[in-house]
Amino acid sequence: MPAISFNDSQWQSRGDMELQISADGESAALHSRARQDWWRTPPHSEPESDVDRRTGPTLTRPVTVKRWTAGVWLHVELDERFKQAALFVHAGEPGTVGASWLKLGIEKEGGRENIGCVVTDPFSDWSTSPSPHPMAEHYWLYAQVARVGPDVHCHWALQRGSADGPPAGVPKESELVQAREVRGFALSAAEEPWHVGIMACGPLSEQTRATFAHFQLDEQ
């Protein structure tokens, strides 16, 4: 897939964050502020009823075609519950109340690191699986989302990099694990430009520190 520099002019930042982009544009360090999150529930849901949190900082770019694939390596400090980093997809214009969105990444919950996907259309539906290796041992998560007409396909791979960065290249197709397949995602926004990029946050934390590298986007 074509590589996209984080220095490219089409990137749009939203939310309160500290953002540092490397000189070559290959990596971005995103540090969130206190108690930010993306999560939506209906009335009478438990344990949280009728919430719509859209404060997690994002760096996204518009995609106007209906068939595309995006991927990125990510690494995040997971020392507190609910800290997370993800490849983020927003259907329609960012900031629109009630819009559909999804995040595919890794999060600390239940005392362990979980790789998962939250699909919000209209409410947040969360699927997870335990990460086979901890981020602290220099493992990086590769998150990939593909839009194919009305559907989205979410895959991931976990590979060991180094203290300096992620593994070279991208995972082979045979190394990708399916996290989610969503039929008919965000149909009400099918004709609008979508936005895809990166997000990190921690609803219980003062700050979440994540690094993203080698963002790729193939528009077909």
Automatic annotation (TrEMBL):
Residues 34-55 have a biased composition (Basic and acidic residues). InterPro entries: DUF1349 (IPR009784). Pfam families: DUF1349. Residues 23-58 are annotated as: Disordered. This is DUF1349-domain-containing protein. It comes from Tilletiopsis washingtonensis.
